[in-house]
Design the sequence.
């Protein structure tokens, strides 16, 4: 074995840590070098990345393609908005309420959905999303119908702290919660529970044959993904200070699934990268003068290119190692 071959595997964790440190540092410095609009866009990208991670827990980790995470995102957003306007302006309490309510909603809907697989599961989750959207439109006494809930007060991250009025301060709150949840989900992805989920994805019949209660595992991850989507909904309200039925609509679910496909199914950082790419393509490139009004077309082209050029998504891109010279005696 050559010395370079022996060093290369050990160098990978160091390179990964350096990359993570660089990304976190860039995110932390962003409000000091970007304008208010760009900072607000970054906040929305981080929220959307959490939603994409919740989709990835089901689609990438467990093999359950879903179009229903917008339902839990919308439930969390409405729960946080109602809590903010009627109960408390403390952000951490809004976050817990949103995640808890979304997880509770995920129990009965998941009990029904996880009995199916493949396209049937996809259609069931789509139906769940449409039911949530319809409820947001028609339950006017709670959701204010198509007008949505406005007048949400500025978020107070923790008791005793001031309300966050500036976009940069809200961004730091969103970034802190994002990093905590990303770390928690990443640790979950390395736990024995995640290995069982990958087994269900790859060969569920074999997992069932050796004694694993696969439906119970699927329901558990469905509820965890619902809670994560609900937490993202709470952050969305903290950024927007407004929520409407469109936040629980089909477009939100489709964009989140598209982000997972482009980023790389099964990779959490890939889902985040895909979310950023999808959001920037729709809201930045789609608003350029040369292509104004053609954001959906650009997203369609991006999806086609990703499927053919990056079958494993952004997470599957590998930089070839530098060639090493062989030493001769």
Sequence:
């Amino acid at each position: 074995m050559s010395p370079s071959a022996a060093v290369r595997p050990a160098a990978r964790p160091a390179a990964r840590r350096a990359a993570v440190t660089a990304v976190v540092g860039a995110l932390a410095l962003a409000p000091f070098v970007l304008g208010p609009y760009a900072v607000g866009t970054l906040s929305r990208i981080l929220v959307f990345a959490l939603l994409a991670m919740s989709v990835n827990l089901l689609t990438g980790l467990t093999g359950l393609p879903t179009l229903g995470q917008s339902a839990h995102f919308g439930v969390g957003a409405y729960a946080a908005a109602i809590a903010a306007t009627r109960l408390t302006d403390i952000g951490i309490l809004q976050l817990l309420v949103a995640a808890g309510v979304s997880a509770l909603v995920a129990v009965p809907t998941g009990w029904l959905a996880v009995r199916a697989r493949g396209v049937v599961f996809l259609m069931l989750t789509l139906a769940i999303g449409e039911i949530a959207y319809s409820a947001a439109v028609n339950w006017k006494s709670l959701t204010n119908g198509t007008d949505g809930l406005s007048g949400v007060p500025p978020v107070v991250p923790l008791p005793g702290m001031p309300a966050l009025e500036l976009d940069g301060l809200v961004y730091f709150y969103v970034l802190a919660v994002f990093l905590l949840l990303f770390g928690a989900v990443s640790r979950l992805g390395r736990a024995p529970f995640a290995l069982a989920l990958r087994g269900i994805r790859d060969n569920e019949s074999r997992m069932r044959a050796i004694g694993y209660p696969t439906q119970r595992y699927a329901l558990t991850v469905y509820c965890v993904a619902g809670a994560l989507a609900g937490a993202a909904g709470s952050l969305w309200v903290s950024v927007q200070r407004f929520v409407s039925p469109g936040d629980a609509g089909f477009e939100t679910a489709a964009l989140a699934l598209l982000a997972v496909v482009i980023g790389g199914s099964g990779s959490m950082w890939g889902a985040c990268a895909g979310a950023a790419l999808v959001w920037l393509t729709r809201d930045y490139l789609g608003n350029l003068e040369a292509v104004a009004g053609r954001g959906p077309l650009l997203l369609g082209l991006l999806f086609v290119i990703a499927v053919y050029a990056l079958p494993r998504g952004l997470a599957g891109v590998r930089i070839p190692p530098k060639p090493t010279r062989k030493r001769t005696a």
